[in-house]
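[audit] Reproducing an earlier prediction to check determinism. Same input, same settings, fresh worker. If the tokens differ from the archived copy the diff job will pick it up downstream; this log only records the rerun itself.
[audit] input (128 residues):
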Amino acid sequence: VQLVESGGGLVQAGGSLRLSCVVSGLPFTNYAMGWFRQAPGKEREFVAAISWNGGQIYYADSVKGRFTISRDHAKNTVFLQMNSLKPEDTAVYYCAAEFATPAEFTGRYSYPNEYDYWGQGTQVTVSS
């Protein structure tokens, strides 16, 4: 199983980035997907999540209205469109996969320990 993130980089405050996570080695359509981030000296935190069929989407309050998660089953890829970036968005961003029914997903989408597979992360740096 591989989850490979890309799209990170250095951007000025107010700018945008689009992260991608290509998944291989598992039935992508059966897995819910999440994005988490971890800043230096801080715990990994939930950013956004999407159920296997896209019917459920969740965001952390800190990114709601600025970030958009989506998935493309034809490409086995999950995306995170990040707009109006702020310096406090600076972190390593990770995608993760969770085998969960929609009912299961509702209760645990924001908990890192519930996810089965993780990518290696991509650095996002937002300058002020």
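[audit] rerun output stored. Observation attached for the diff report: The first helix runs from residue 102 to 108.
[audit] end
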